[in-house]
Amino acid sequence: MSAPATQSAGTLLEVSGISVSFDGFKAINNLSFSIGPAEMRAIIGPNGAGKTTFMDIVTGKTKPDEGKVLWGDLSRNLIGMNEARIARAGIGRKFQRPTVFEDQTVFENLLMAVKNDRNPLAVLFFKPKFKDLAKVEELAAEIGLADQLSRKSGELSHGQKQWLEIGMLLAQDPKLLLVDEPAAGMTLGEREHTTDILKEAAKTRAVVVVEHDMEFVRRLDCKVTVLHEGSVLAEGSLDHVTQNQDVIDVYLGR
Ligand SMILES: Nc1ncnc2c1ncn2[C@@H]1O[C@H](COP(=O)(O)OP(=O)(O)OP(=O)(O)O)[C@@H](O)[C@H]1O
Ligand SMILES: [Mg+2]
To answer: 189, exposed or middle or buried, with CB in 10 Å at 0-12, 13-18, 19+?
Structure first.
């Protein structure tokens, strides 16, 4: 194996010179930026800026035409790895539509995630160990569903299902959690609780949140990367980027 590329200390993920075209349209255009080990980062930008495509590339769903995605202490290039391997390397992704098993209880869903066996039948056939139960309790507390463990997941509110999904991702202890538009469809109270969950999660891992809701982004209280036409347009505090004339022109001022 060749020596790993040098990466500045304190970098968990670095995308470098990434480009991808769909039918000749450049959705990601020489995109480069990096995320630190236990960093909260918000990504904002207009529709079609490439935010979701960035997540597709990092998770191995979309293969870029050019560039590298360097991961972890060894700066391993993730390009070419399949989605399962990237997930095992420590990258979890939350999709907008929750993938919880609606007929299973909150407890069973969390236990499946802890056991890393997303098969509703499996949970009937094993006797959970004490440490698994303790982990389920811990996760339930972290997502604010400790008093909902025996409820069928299908009965939960939209927000609660999203939190359960986040809990199921945290069960795998990812080093990086990618979250695409978590606030969509949530009430204000649910959005505030979601912020708390993500901020807590970001104390021990990196969390990257794509969101259009600026109040939500403000509450995350973190560095913001603005994407536009597949590249970084601006980066810095929310106050910094929202005063940037280019950002106002392409996104905020519309
Ligand atoms: N698999 C694909 N095939 C063809 N075009 C795609 C594909 N994925 C994304 N695109 C296009 O790439 C561009 C970037 O899309 P992307 O979904 O990444 O934007 P986004 O920043 O997430 O936007 P939004 O805020 O609306 O979610 C869009 O023009 C989109 O239509
Ligand atoms: Mg998107």
So the answer is: exposed
CB within 8 Å of 22: residues ≥ 6 apart: none
Q: What 8-state DSSP symbol labels residue 247? A: H
CA separation, residue 223 to residues 41, 178, 228, 244 (Å): 5, 15, 17, 14
Can you list the domains of the chain with their CATH numbers?
Answer: 90-205 (3.40.50.300)
pLDDT tens profile 79-125: 999 999 999 999 999 977 778 999 999 999 999 999 876 666 666 66
pTM: 0.92
- Residues lining ion ligand 2 (Cβ < 5 A) are 51-52
Q: Are 93 and 182 in contact (CB under 8 A)?
A: no
Ligand 1 binding pocket mutation candidate from 23, 31, 52, 216 (most atoms within 8 A of CB):
52
